[in-house]
Design a protein that fits this description.
This protein is mainly alpha-helical. The chain has helices at 2-18, 31-43, 58-70, 76-100, 102-113, 116-122, 128-147, 152-167, 174-184, 188-210, 220-226, 232-236, 242-248, 250-253, 259-276, 278-293, 312-317, 328-342, 347-362, 367-370, 374-390, 394-412, 424-436, 440-453, 458-470, 474-487, 492-504, 508-521, 526-536, and strands at 319-321, 324-326.
Length: 554
């Protein structure tokens, strides 16, 4: 176990230190930026910025604790996560050995130590590492409770607390609570009580600050709708910032007030879709099952495979070639067949796989969300391989091999090439951060790259235009801002910035018309209101500059 821990830790430390060369290491974007911003606010004594938590807050508070202890740097959190990832490999080995013996346990543990995507997320400011560690810690507590009747009260309660803590990091961990409670039987109340105690401070804070009963966070409804609507591909790929803000504010435009009601609004839309088009809804669920089983690692906000450019560990342990998406394309068939033939030896682990898999399928499929299943699949894969070569009789062996082949083909064929550049959303978000830091040339290149990948990227056109105009290229800036308005006529920031340029070039009538259009779209914008008043005055005030850049992506 010690050697396993050291191997897992060394690989993760090599990866973390290598990733310092990536511009994303010190510039977290999109979801990582949201966690980072919240953690910094907490560490600086301002508290979490949300009145009612938009997403489960557990990771942000742990990150804030690290910042408070080690300073506001980006190496320390990843070092902590490297230790957590190594501990998860050890817990995977212990759980596997508990059910199937030492050989299977060590094989599963080393599988976790060498699993490329686990290493990748251990180096990201995202939730999987902490979620997996807490979920895995809950399982040994439950297993030990069944072996120690005298201490079962504390052990079952402790397993509930750990699973509850995992739930305030990733809300789908609530299904782990349900599975543990089911296997606790008469002691189920202890598991539920422990989970409730872990979650209660979050619920209380939501009620105290926001005045609504929201147990963990209010993003559940919108996430459910993202994964269950007739335009799934478009909705899952919705861009951050302006498009996302409009999407989130849809309930308010429909007269819905309160975040709980907003979440329920999106749940209602899912129910309407399922009821009005049951065949389409069923086809979408089958599509999600396929995506769930596919070897390809589906990104959420930020492409995954380009990290291989910086990390020698990932170059070895995370890749795609025609016919194999490694490692999940290999783990999935071995793990599922292993579970099918060996679930009776580990029924609780099998129940966790089924329940958590169903929870992921209920929403939408990304690599990040299915990661907590990997340790259990590694255990079943190791157990299944040993059964196949040492215990299986000929007919059963033939059926199992055929099943592995079918699942392997399903998970690895037509998975597409391995991306070697970052996606447009991440480039745009990094460009915003670099522009705010004054690195205009680097930001300009990123905005241009994002536009090449998505020519209709309105926000990137806006920021590119602002940078061009502020660096003496007013004509280029006007063209970029005009293009932003062509692809998105409702982009108030593009209208306002173009109005500023028209005003600077001595065209007040054109500027006034653009300000008026922007004001109709966003009457709350104080800058636009002041500009309209100034242009209507016989003695105009000195020219002001519109807010530069599109702001922090959300």
């Amino acid at each position: 176990m010690l050697l396993l821990f050291v191997v897992a830790l060394v690989l993760r430390l090599i990866h973390v230190l290598a990733m310092r060369a990536s511009p994303y290491f010190t510039n977290p974007v999109i979801d990582a930026a949201t966690y980072d911003d919240a953690a910094r606010a907490i560490a600086m004594g301002r508290g979490h910025p949300d009145l009612i938590y938009w997403q489960p807050p557990g990771y942000s508070y742990v990150l804030a604790w690290i910042y408070s202890t080690a300073g506001l740097g980006y190496v320390a959190p990843r070092i902590v996560q490297a230790f957590l990832g190594a501990a998860s490999a050890v817990m995977t080995a212990w759980i596997g050995a508990r059910h199937f013996g030492r050989g299977v346990g060590l094989a599963a543990g080393y599988g976790a130590a060498l699993y490329g995507m686990l290493i990748y997320f251990d180096g990201e400011l995202l939730t999987p590492t902490l979620t997996i560690a807490l979920q895995l810690a809950a399982v040994p507590a439950a297993l030990l409770a069944s072996d120690n009747p005298r201490r079962s009260t504390w052990l079952w309660g402790g397993s509930g607390v750990l699973a509850g803590l995992a739930s305030i990091v990733t809300a789908t961990s609530l299904v782990i609570v349900a599975v543990l409670a089911a296997f606790a039987r008469r002691r189920a109340w202890l598991v539920l009580l422990g989970a409730a105690l872990a979650i209660a401070p979050v619920t209380w804070r939501n009620w105290k600050r926001g005045g609504e009963f929201i147990p963990i966070s209010w993003n559940g409804g919108i996430n459910l709708y993202i994964g269950n609507n007739p335009r799934y591909d478009e909705t899952v790929a919705i861009r951050p910032d302006l498009h996302w803000k409009r999407f989130v504010l849809e309930p308010r435009r429909e007269g819905v007030r309160g975040v709980g009601a907003a979440s329920n609004y999106f749940v209602g839309k899912v129910l309407v879709y399922a009821g009005s088009d049951p065949l389409g809804f069923a086809r979408l669920q089958l599509k999600k099952v396929y995506l769930f089983l596919a070897g390809n690692e589906i990104p959420r906000n930020q492409e995954i495979y380009p990290a291989r450019e910086y990390s020698p560990v990932l170059r070895l342990l995370l890749w795609k070639v025609p016919g194999l998406a490694f490692p999940f394309g290999l783990l999935m068939p071995l793990g599922l067949v292993g579970m099918a033939v060996r679930w009776r030896r580990a029924p609780m682990l099998a129940a966790i796989v089924v329940a958590y898999g169903a929870a992921v399928l209920a929403f939408f499929i990304t690599a990040r969300y299915r990661m907590p299943l990997v340790p259990y699949l590694l255990i079943f894969a190791a157990a299944g391989v040993r059964w196949l070569f040492k215990e299986a009789r000929a007919p059963a062996r033939a059926a199992a091999i055929a099943s592995v082949v079918v699942l392997f083909l399903l998970g690895n064929l037509a998975q597409g090439p391995m991306p070697n550049t970052m996606n447009a959303d991440a480039e745009y978000s990094l460009g915003v951060k670099l522009a705010v830091k004054g690195l205009s040339e680097e930001a300009t290149r990123l905005f241009e790259s994002a536009i090449r990948k998505h020519p209709d990227y309105s926000e990137a056109w806006v920021n590119l235009g602002v940078l061009q105009a502020t660096h003496g290229r007013a004509a280029d800036g006007e063209r970029s801002l005009t293009r932003a308005i062509e692809v998105d006529p409702e982009n108030a920031l593009a209208l306002t910035n173009l109005a500023v340029l028209r005003e600077m070039s001595g065209r007040p009538d054109e500027a006034r018309a653009l300000y008026q259009r922007a004001y109709k779209i966003d009457p709350s914008d104080e800058f636009t209101r002041r500009k309209l008043a100034a242009l209507a005055s016989p003695n105009p005030t000195p020219l002001e500059t519109a807010q530069p850049l599109g702001g922090k992506p959300k």
